[in-house]
Structure formats: structure tokens, C-alpha cells
């Protein structure tokens, strides 16, 4: 069995604050100051109304919207969409995907990518 | 300005190769172009409009117009992924209706098979795509981004692996009659289910082939078309859109076809029940099922029951579909299946499909496709064509 290493996320001016908070263990999402809606993936302009957006800390709790385990690589890995408690559905990986199904509650776990950047994955609570 | 009845498809050609290590991508484009122009009875010098997408090498239309030495007054390189060429037919009709060109050439070609590409590995994406900082670490690849749609559809509507398998079975029944098809063996539901899981819940046989090759179309004005010796096939309805994650309010069980289908049918003035033949993009079995629902061939959630028991097999079921064997068995050149969808619809409307799969007196056909990734963000394009 090979070792699973997540590719390093691309750097972007729009993700700098998120990554800095992640290094301190805080999971941020972005919410619009005009329409009040949270969204994912985070953007400077609200994808619903083009209003300006701000960071806020999210609970890290959610439920699995969909998932798929890739069997043709070693080791297999499970990609998923998780519906956050705050509303938005985000792409992620499940660290224990074989034990999980759609609708199951999950909680955030930081996993270090190849370059050490923590990326938001999920697992059974 | 409506484009209804404005564009005539007078040339359609599918390159016979499925593996082309000794040809360049530009060469495949040009060979496809030559084939489509010969089919139409036109020459290279008649072309005054050119359409291509992201599979064209170099700077797309500039590189290919130079390679083929075309003299053009209209160009369009709209890239909606694999369904680009379906949209290009409508764009060509728009340009013709606006007097921007009279003979439009559309080409596609690529060599993913010779280059060793796979739907289980990440493909090179534009490095500045805004989603990459938030997604690339999670290893989205082609297969798992469709598999998650299948998983959600199963969860929400009770769709089964057996029902999905029927789509591959139908494609294989058609491909046995196509001497150029990459996979010509008829398969059973049991064989599909026995093939290895690639990405849950999709089996290997739920996935399309990876092939080298290409195709081309020639679209003209009515006056040019009526001077040629080919059966007249013209555009009756068309629509295109893009669907993404909607800021995190995503729905993996619906595609952009939920918008393009009704819009194209309204323009055409016909209903799904009127369609005699349908080319519907089959990158994976689940792609077909979701698009058929969205296009209105059955209600949302009923796709599994609709495709089961051979309902997509020509001469057997109610909706003859992808009678060339589709992307699942015949061909998926450049990992983009849109142009072959239009080509087989044209064959059906001309009465030039293989006799074993030809729909009798086929007068009304649909070609629809998805480009990009159904599970994250994708283009959709619908086309309704009639025999005049």
C-alpha cells in the first residue's frame, strides 16, 4: 500500500487569510455583508449578489452530500462533497471514507498536503 | 434574429482512426476537415468561417487556419469542453444568419490514447483556474467527478447499478455494427457489473473509451446547401449554458440540460416525445441518465427505469440513442464527444446510419452534450435537427 499525500494547494491572494488561519487550526468560510449568505469556495465578491464578503469561523461540522472512493490508485482515496452546518457544500476528502455514506455526520480534520499546508478534510465525529 | 432553420449541416465526417501515434493533432484536424468538405461536395477554398475549441493545438483558430491555409472572415473558438462543437453548430448558424460567413467549418481532434491520458488521473488544468486553491488537493479527476453524481442520484432516487449498466449494454448493441468502433463486443448487464469498480459506484464499463481521432462538420446557408447533392439537414432549435457549483448550493443530480433542453425544444416548436433519434453524450453511463431526465425524455428521478430493459436500443426500445456505439463503445476523440454526437444525428437524418440501427424515416433528431466535469462545473449544449 502506498502512502497517500495530498497535492499542495495552489497559492492565491484570495486564499492567503484562509491558509494562515488553517495553520492556527481555525476553519474559515466567507459570508456576504450585503445579502448575508455564506458561500463556498471563498471569493472576494459574493457569488449570489456581487456584494463584498468577510471571513468568519465555521463550526467544522457537516454531513456528507456525496462521495466516491477512487479504487484505481494506491492507496485508494475518497473524494466527497460535505454540506457544512452553515449551509454551503464544499469539495473535500474523507480520511475514513470506506466507513461512511451519504447523509452521515462528519467533522473537520486538518491534513497536511505535500508542502505542509493544512487542507480541510473530514472524518467520522 | 432567430437561427431556427438558418443553418444547414451539409458535411459530416468522423475520422476512422482510434489510435494515431504517427499523426500530429493538427494533421488529424485537417484530415477530418478534408473528409467533411468532401462529404459536402465543397472545397477548402469555399470555407469562410472556422470554429474550433480547446483541443486545437497552439493558439487554436490562428494555428489551425494557418496550417490548413484557410482564408476566413469569421472565427469562433468558444470552449465548452466536450460539447463545444454542438454549440458551434448554433454559432455557425448565427454567423450565417448575420451574413458573417456562408460556409462554416468545425473541427475537433486529439490523441489522448497515444499520449497515455486516463480519467483516473488529473489532467492539466489552466494554472490560474480560481477553483484550484480550494479543490486541487482533493484530487478531483474525471471519473470521480461523475461518480459522485451517480452516488447522489442513487441515494436520492433509488437508481441502481443495473439500470446504469443498461446504458452501456445499449451502446454495445449498436457498436457491434460499427466497423470503426473501438469496442465491438455486445455486453450484458452482468458483465458491466462484473467489471472492476473504478470510482464508486462506477464500474469500468460505465466509463467511455479513450481514443485518438477527430471529426468535422460543415454548416452552410440555405442557398449553398440547396446547390449541393446531399440530403438537407438543418437546425431547428439550439441552446447552451454553463452550470457550476452555484456558490455551494449545488445539485449533482441535475445538469445544464435542464435549461438547454426546454429552450431548444421551445425554439424548435417540438416536444421530447417527437424526437425520433437522440445523440446524448455518454462520457459515463450516469451522464446519459441525468441528461435524459433534464432534457425531458422522462421525469427527474425516473431515468433508471427509462433506460432499463433495452429502451435505448434502436429497433427495440422507445428512444434510439447513440447508434454509432457512442463514447462508451465507439469513439471519444480528444476526450471530447460532442462532434460525434452531431455526426451520428446527421447520419440518421440522412438515412445513412448502419441499416441495423437506422431509424426508419428519421426526420427529427436531437444532439446534446456536456463538457467539463458534471460534478463540479460544466458546459451544456443542445441541438435539434430536422430533415428537410
What do these coordinates show?
The complex is a heterodimer of chains A (125) and B (388). Chain A is mainly beta and 125 residues long. Chain A has a single domain (16-123), classed as OB fold (Dihydrolipoamide Acetyltransferase, E2P) (Beta Barrel), CATH 2.40.50. In chain A, 6% of the residues lie in helices and 40% in strands. Chain A is built from one helix and eight strands. In chain A, the strands form two sheets. Chain A has a five-stranded antiparallel beta sheet with strand order 6-5-4-7-8. In chain A, strands 2-1-3 form a three-stranded antiparallel beta sheet. The radius of gyration of chain A is 15 Å and the shape is globular. Chain A starts with 15 loop residues before the first helix and ends with a strand. In chain A, 39% of the residues are buried. Chain B starts with 7 loop residues before the first strand and ends with a strand. Chain B has 13 helices and eleven strands. The mean pLDDT of chain B is 97. Chain B has helices at 25-40, 61-68, 84-97, 132-135, 142-157, 161-175, 189-194, 222-226, 257-268, 285-295, 303-307, 326-330, 338-350, and strands at 8-14, 49-51, 74-76, 103-110, 197-199, 202-203, 213-220, 233-243, 277-280, 364-373, 377-387. Chain B is 34% helix and 18% strand. In chain B, the strands form three sheets. Chain B has a five-stranded mixed beta sheet with strand order 1-7-4-2-3, with helices on both faces. Chain B has a four-stranded mixed beta sheet with strand order 8-11-10-9, with helices on both faces. A two-stranded antiparallel sheet of chain B has the order 5-6. Chain B is an alpha/beta fold and 388 residues long.
